[in-house]
Amino acid sequence: MTHLDSDNSKQEKQAKILTEKCVAARVPAHCIDSLVQYVLIGRPMGGFLTAVVCNDLRGACERADLINRYAMFEIVSWLYNHAPIDCWGSEEKFKRWTKRHGMENREVEDDG
Fold this sequence. Notes:
67% of the residues lie in helices and 0% in strands. It is mainly alpha-helical. It is globular and about 40 Å long. It starts with a helix and ends in a 13-residue tail after the last helix.
C-alpha cells in the first residue's frame, strides 16, 4: 500500500464517519456530500450551505429550498456537534477553511 493509498483509505473512513453522523442528525440527504467534502477537503458548497456555514441567517433563509427551510436546525446542530469549530461560524472561517483545503491531516473522531 502506497502513501497515497493510505491517505485515500483514511479519507474514505473519515467521510464514512461524517456521513453516518449526518444521517443520524437528520441532515437532508441532498446536503450530506457537500457538507462532508467541505469539512474534509474544503470543497466549496452551494449558496444555502455556504450561508449556513458563514452564519448568515438571512442568506440561508433566502437560498433555502423547501426541505432545507425545515432542516436548518439539524444542519447547524450537526456542524456544532461534529464539524471542527474553525470551519464554520463566519465568512472568514469559511474562506480560511476552503483555502487550506479542509482538514488536511486532522482526524475525525468516531464516537462509536
